[in-house]
Write a structure and sequence with these properties.
Elements lengths: L36 E5 L2 E6 L2 H14 L5 E5 L4 E5 L3
Length: about 90
Protein backbone atom coordinates (compact mmCIF):
# COMPACT_ATOMS: atom_id res chain seq x y z
CA UNK A 1 0.00 0.00 0.00
CA UNK A 2 1.12 3.47 -0.77
CA UNK A 3 1.31 5.93 2.08
CA UNK A 4 0.85 9.63 1.70
CA UNK A 5 2.51 12.13 3.91
CA UNK A 6 0.54 14.98 5.31
CA UNK A 7 1.98 18.46 5.32
CA UNK A 8 2.20 20.26 8.62
CA UNK A 9 -0.62 22.67 9.35
CA UNK A 10 -0.03 26.38 9.63
CA UNK A 11 -1.78 28.81 11.91
CA UNK A 12 -2.95 32.15 10.59
CA UNK A 13 -3.29 34.91 13.16
CA UNK A 14 -5.50 37.87 12.35
CA UNK A 15 -4.38 41.29 13.51
CA UNK A 16 -6.51 42.60 16.34
CA UNK A 17 -8.96 45.33 15.50
CA UNK A 18 -8.12 48.75 16.91
CA UNK A 19 -10.07 49.45 20.08
CA UNK A 20 -12.69 52.02 19.22
CA UNK A 21 -15.72 53.09 21.15
CA UNK A 22 -18.67 50.95 20.16
CA UNK A 23 -21.45 53.10 18.70
CA UNK A 24 -24.88 52.81 20.27
CA UNK A 25 -27.09 50.37 18.36
CA UNK A 26 -29.69 51.94 16.09
CA UNK A 27 -33.23 51.31 17.31
CA UNK A 28 -36.65 52.55 16.33
CA UNK A 29 -37.44 53.85 19.79
CA UNK A 30 -36.89 57.49 20.46
CA UNK A 31 -35.39 58.29 23.80
CA UNK A 32 -37.62 60.25 26.12
CA UNK A 33 -35.94 63.52 27.00
CA UNK A 34 -36.49 63.16 30.73
CA UNK A 35 -39.49 65.35 31.58
CA UNK A 36 -41.55 64.36 34.60
CA UNK A 37 -44.88 63.94 32.77
CA UNK A 38 -44.98 61.53 29.85
CA UNK A 39 -47.70 61.44 27.23
CA UNK A 40 -48.88 57.94 26.32
CA UNK A 41 -51.04 57.05 23.33
CA UNK A 42 -52.33 53.47 23.39
CA UNK A 43 -49.72 52.70 26.10
CA UNK A 44 -46.83 53.93 23.96
CA UNK A 45 -44.68 56.82 25.15
CA UNK A 46 -44.83 59.71 22.73
CA UNK A 47 -43.30 62.73 24.47
CA UNK A 48 -42.45 64.13 27.88
CA UNK A 49 -43.30 67.48 29.43
CA UNK A 50 -42.16 69.46 32.45
CA UNK A 51 -45.71 70.25 33.63
CA UNK A 52 -48.90 68.24 33.82
CA UNK A 53 -50.87 71.05 32.13
CA UNK A 54 -48.65 70.97 29.03
CA UNK A 55 -48.95 67.19 28.77
CA UNK A 56 -52.71 67.31 29.29
CA UNK A 57 -53.11 70.02 26.62
CA UNK A 58 -51.18 67.93 24.08
CA UNK A 59 -53.15 64.83 25.06
CA UNK A 60 -56.49 66.61 24.67
CA UNK A 61 -55.48 67.72 21.18
CA UNK A 62 -54.78 64.12 20.19
CA UNK A 63 -57.95 62.84 21.90
CA UNK A 64 -60.14 65.40 20.07
CA UNK A 65 -58.75 64.39 16.69
CA UNK A 66 -58.81 60.64 17.42
CA UNK A 67 -61.39 59.90 20.15
CA UNK A 68 -61.00 56.13 19.89
CA UNK A 69 -57.37 56.21 21.12
CA UNK A 70 -56.48 55.81 24.77
CA UNK A 71 -54.52 58.89 25.81
CA UNK A 72 -52.93 59.16 29.26
CA UNK A 73 -50.39 61.23 31.16
CA UNK A 74 -47.90 59.30 33.30
CA UNK A 75 -46.25 60.99 36.27
CA UNK A 76 -42.82 59.36 36.53
CA UNK A 77 -42.16 60.68 40.05
CA UNK A 78 -45.40 59.53 41.69
CA UNK A 79 -45.92 56.56 39.35
CA UNK A 80 -49.51 57.60 38.58
CA UNK A 81 -51.18 57.18 35.19
CA UNK A 82 -54.12 59.55 34.47
CA UNK A 83 -56.32 58.76 31.48
CA UNK A 84 -57.54 61.78 29.51
CA UNK A 85 -61.24 61.84 28.67
CA UNK A 86 -63.09 64.23 26.37
CA UNK A 87 -65.08 66.93 28.23
Amino acid sequence: MATTTRQTSTTITMPSAPEESVPEPVTQRKRVDGGRFRLQVDRQMKNSYATYEAAEKAGLGIKKEHPILQVAVYDSVEGVNKIIELP
